[in-house]
Each structure stands twice: as structure tokens, then as C-alpha cells.
Design goal:
12 helices, metal ion binding, transferase, 43% helix, methyltransferase, alpha/beta, MeTrfase_7, binds S-adenosylmethionine, 7-stranded mixed sheet
């Protein structure tokens, strides 16, 4: 599986889309806002006046969450600017994701974004003074160079960096699993961790070239709380998928070998692992490193459906591995629903641990 050609969230604005099923990820962006605010304020205080501020959101996907972090960052800087009595600023925003991401939907949502910026900045006198904000879409993997040298002030990424650049090599023996579980051989854990380390090191190296002096990054990944490799958490969701696929094998709806060769290209790092890699790579200092938790079923919004939310992320990977004609996706997620319904504790066990790290470039 070539992840950069395959991975994307379900596009569009329909019932199964990421745009309509990413309330949980939206909550995570809001939960980490204080860390992002602190980092962007500290950046602003080190800038020369009237510089155009260049911000990149990496792994932006498509839908309302694409614009949320950027709107928050612009609002925070603009408040700082107003408090200091400085002149109005210009922003250049880069929205990045893999080439198969639904950039069309992003561009269609641009007028709404500009409108909300205008509303955000409506003064008491009713006059509009919105900052000029220029938005560019950037298609490509964040494990490669994406921007010219010294061109960015701030990089933000939420829920993108636990995705690996490839399924680790040498995990053919992870049979019966689709991810790391307590029954995975030790060599499989090692292969997953080493792939994560290689990818994260590349990410840090490339971003350190692209960020300017005093540049900052805030990254949130789906991770683990501690060194317990198999602590249940978001990985439990992949175990439920493995159970679902086994039931479909028993019904002879899919081939066992095909399931054995299906592995998720994702790794959930612990804060200690993140710290170890950042310190080893030596381009950034860590300002904040924090974990937070959110339960999968914590969104009590009636529009939120846990299975649809999982489907909007997992479906493109399943389709790419099994093929549309081989495996009926409605059938898969119907079965997944049954698996959850038969294990009332299943949903409670799905706890998402967020590892957030705020980094400053070593000049
Ligand atoms: C779960 S979505 C998160 C989207 C959004 N940031 C949010 O918080 O709702 C993860 C996104 O990261 C993107 N992604 C994963 N690996 C990537 C890579 N190597 N380069 C760029 N984007 C990547 C995926 O395509 C996906 O759109």
C-alpha cells in the first residue's frame, strides 16, 4: 500500500464524509487551543511589525475543521496586534494534505471562511476591518519538502502525524491483527516504532528548513499516555475492525489471506517517545509536551455517530486494500455496528489520548 497515494478521509459533504463526521477531532482542536495561542503569541512578540505572517496547517483534510485552527490563530494574533496598537496584518495560509484529499470542498468553503473572518473582526462601530488573508492549497506528503527555505512562521497539525508514510516492512507475522495488539509479535512493535521514528525525524528536518528564525510548531497526534505499548485506547477501534473482518471471513465474504496482509499505517506515540525523537533530531526545543484524553463517544451532539466517524477515516484504506467490488462497505460497517452492539463495554474502552507538543526552532 502506497500510503501517499491511498490515504485520505472520506471527501465531500455527504452523510459518510469526514466533513460531516469529525466533531471529535474538532473538540481536540478546541482542547489544545490554549497551547496554540501561547505559541502564536510568543511568535508574534518576536516579529518585526508589518511582516506577512505565513501559517501552514498540515494534514488539514476537508470540512469545517480545515479552517478552525487557522481562524483561531488569526484571531489570537489580531487581538495581540490590536492591544499593542499595531497596524493591520496580512496572513498567508497554506492548507496541506495528501494529493487525494478533497481540496475541491476546501476551495468551495473558502467564501464561508472569509465571511467568518469578516464577522470575527467587526468592530463595535459596525465597520469591517478584516485582516487580509490569502489561502493556498498544498498537495503533498509532509514527510517531504513542501515549502521554500525559511518561508514559514508557524506550523500547526492536528491528528495527522500519527499516520505513517508506509505500512512498516517486515510485519507479515502480524496475522489476525490489523494494528498493534497484545498478540502482535515483538518484532511487529519494533517495526512500527522504527517507522514512526524515521518518519517523525524526516518531518522535523524538513520543517526546520522551511520555518524562519523563531518559527514555532504545535503538533497534536493520537498517542498513548505512557510506555504501556498495548494500552487500549484508540487502537481498540482497530481491534474491533479486526474482529469484524474475522466475522466476514467466517461468512466467506472475504479472503483470510487478504485480511492477514491488511495493516494500518499508523502509530500512537507516547510523550516519552516524542521527546526522545525531538531531542535526538536537535532542530527544535520543546516548550510544552502534554497529553489529554477524550472518550470516543463523548460527543453528545445528535448529529454525531461514532461508527460513521470511524468509517469516514477507515473506509478509503479498506477500499484500497480489498477493492470496492470485493468488499461491500455498507456490509462491513453494518457488521462493525453489530460487533459494538454485542459488547456494551466496547465503546467505553475507546479512549483517544492526544499527545500535543509545542516546539520552537533552534536558530
Ligand atoms: C484525521 S485527519 C485530521 C484532519 C484535521 N486536521 C482535523 O483535525 O480534523 C488526518 C489528515 O492527515 C492527512 N495526512 C496523513 N498523512 C499525511 C501526510 N504524510 N502528508 C499530508 N497529510 C497527511 C490525512 O490525509 C488526513 O486528511
Amino acid at each position: 500500500m502506497e500510503v501517499s497515494k491511498v490515504l485520505h478521509m472520506n471527501g465531500g459533504m455527504g452523510d459518510a464524509s469526514y466533513a460531516k463526521n469529525s466533531l471529535l477531532q474538532q473538540k481536540v482542536i478546541l482542547m489544545t487551543k490554549s497551547i496554540t495561542d501561547e505559541a502564536i503569541s510568543s511568535l508574534y512578540n518576536n516579529l518585526s511589525p508589518r511582516e506577512t505572517i505565513c501559517i501552514a496547517d498540515l494534514g488539514c483534510s476537508s470540512g469545517p475543521n480545515t479552517f478552525l485552527p487557522v481562524s483561531q490563530l488569526i484571531q489570537t494574533i489580531d487581538k495581540e496586534r490590536e492591544n499593542k496598537g499595531h497596524e493591520s496584518l496580512e496572513f498567508h495560509v497554506f492548507l496541506n494534505d495528501l494529493p487525494n484529499n478533497d481540496f475541491d470542498t476546501i476551495f468551495r468553503l473558502l467564501p464561508t471562511f472569509h465571511e467568518s473572518l469578516r464577522k470575527q473582526n467587526m468592530g463595535e462601530d459596525g465597520l469591517f476591518d478584516p485582516p487580509n488573508c490569502f489561502v493556498t492549497g498544498v498537495a503533498g506528503s509532509f514527510y517531504t519538502r513542501l515549502f521554500p527555505s525559511n518561508s514559514l512562521h508557524f506550523v500547526h497539525s492536528s491528528y495527522g502525524l500519527h499516520w505513517l508514510s508506509q505500512v512498516p516492512d517486515g510485519i507479515e507475522n502480524n496475522k489476525g491483527n490489523v494494528y498493534l495488539t497484545s498478540t502482535s509479535p515483538k518484532s511487529v512493535y519494533k517495526a512500527y516504532y522504527e517507522q514512526y521514528e524515521r518518519d517523525f525525524v524526516s518531518f522535523l528536518k524538513y520543517r526546520s528548513k522551511e520555518l524562519m528564525k523563531n518559527g514555532r510548531m504545535v503538533l497534536t497526534m493520537l498517542g498513548r499516555k505512557n510506555e504501556d505499548r498495548f494500552s487500549k485506547g484508540c487502537s481498540h477501534e482497530w481491534e474491533l475492525l479486526a474482529t469484524t473482518l474475522k466475522l466476514l471471513i467466517a461468512q466467506e465474504l472475504i479472503d483470510e489471506e487478504k485480511v492477514d496482509s491488511f495493516n494500518i499505517p499508523s502509530y500512537n506515540p507516547s510523550p516519552v517517545e516524542v521527546m526522545y525523537i525531538v531531542e535526538k533530531e536537535r532542530s527544535f526545543t520543546i516548550d510544552v509536551l502534554k497529553t489529554s484524553e477524550i472518550q470516543r463517544n463523548s460527543c453528545d451532539d445528535e448529529k454525531y455517530n461514532m461508527v460513521k466517524s470511524f468509517r469516514s477515516v477507515a473506509e478509503p484504506l479498506l477500499v484500497s486494500h480489498f477493492g470496492h467490488d470485493e468488499l461491500n462497505m455498507d456490509q462491513v460497517f453494518h457488521k462493525y455496528n453489530e460487533v459494538i452492539a454485542n459488547d456494551c463495554k466496547a465503546i467505553e474502552k475507546i479512549m483517544f489520548v492526544n499527545v500535543t507538543v509545542s516546539l520552537a526552532k533552534i536558530n
